[in-house]
Amino acid sequence: MIAASSPSTTSPGRPDPLDFSLADRLPALDAGHGRLLIGAPPQPGKPSLLFVPGAYHGAWCYAHYLDYFAQAGLGCAALDLRGHGGLAPDADFPSVTIADLGQDVVNALDVLKGPTVVVGHSMGALPALLAASQRPVAGVVLMAPSPPGDLPGALALPPVPAAAPRPAPADTEIRARFLATSPDRDVSAVSRRLNAESPQVLNDRYLLRVAISAASITAPGLCLEAGLDTHDRHPPGQDLAIARRFGFTHAVLAGQPHCMMYADHWQISAAAILAWHRTQFG
């Protein structure tokens, strides 16, 4: 277990973890219905990292990671899934499924070429796993993952109405669930970038409609559990069960909330991924 402190505000003189402006300056590549933000090009002999966001989020949420891993000498990119980040939703967006998002990840892997570790956060873990079952990948990293539908004991959730996109969470939920931060913290830098989400995507996850066979994933992997995650969506033992299902290493980041890639002390989760990458690939 890796422990971490979790202050609710930025310390004086330290960069604001909710500043995602780097994402607005990075080069972008089309990838089917998705769009890649490129942190650094592939490096010889070192598998690149492809970051897949969770529900409501775009590639911007990995801005800090893209800088961190580029400075560590690794190729890295983050994916705007269709209708997210810099990609406006179209008329078909309410019918988009997690399988469609999995195809977005497949397309991104095809654009990047070369050995790649696919990294999925929360709901984004499911399209990441689907893509890893369809394309050879160097590795898989899951961060606070949503469970595959065929995971024994996986927690289902109440469905949302299917007629229209689901509005992004309000500031109170961002503070409490995403960041585990103080109730008066300004989180407008997050809320103004979040997108509405396809109700089919949410119900695919909530109703456990995405089955992923353990045999379909042959790459090594890492599953990072957020120690401050909410038990209504991540009950104790679920993340460990996901790791064991796919034969992945499991680690608990004790002081980290659900959105560990931009929470206070996001560097702890980034360092855990980098350490695993170096152990696997040198």
UniProtKB/TrEMBL annotation:
Pfam families: Abhydrolase_6. Residues 49-262 form the AB hydrolase-1 domain. Keywords: Hydrolase. InterPro entries: AB_hydrolase_1 (IPR000073), AB_hydrolase_fold (IPR029058), Carboxylesterase_BioH (IPR050228). One of its GO terms (molecular function) is hydrolase activity. Transmembrane segments: none annotated. Gene3D superfamilies: alpha/beta hydrolase. PANTHER family: HYDROLASE ALPHA/BETA FOLD FAMILY, PEROXISOMAL MEMBRANE PROTEIN LPX1. This is Alpha/beta fold hydrolase. It comes from Achromobacter seleniivolatilans.
